[in-house]
Design goal:
two-stranded antiparallel ribbon, 3 helices, transmembrane helix
């Protein structure tokens, strides 16, 4: 249960930058491409939202809530580190 909650937090928090950039019409990195269109970012955000919600089939209580928050904090810090670099790219981005 804790691992599911951790990954639920990871996916749901990871959807935020992609959803925000997509809604504002800006390009942003996705696993598919270094510079992805706003539309692709919205699709990626919703994929993350769906995965996160599927992992949260039970309400969060006790340790599950903490695992959810730790997962969200983890991906938020990793995103901040990655996106703060001007030439940010994932290892498989070729361009």
């Amino acid at each position: 249960m804790l691992l599911k909650s951790f990954f639920a937090g990871l996916f749901l928090f990871n959807s935020l930058p992609h959803l925000i950039k997509g809604i504002t019409g800006q390009t942003h990195m996705t696993p598919f491409k270094r510079v992805s269109s706003a539309y692709l970012n919205i699709l990626w955000a919703f994929a993350n939202i769906i995965l996160g919600l599927l992992l949260l089939v039970r309400p969060l209580t006790g340790n599950a809530m903490w695992a959810f928050l730790v997962g969200g904090f983890f991906i938020s810090m990793a995103d901040a580190q990655l996106f703060s670099k001007p030439d940010a790219r994932l290892p498989w981005h070729k361009d």
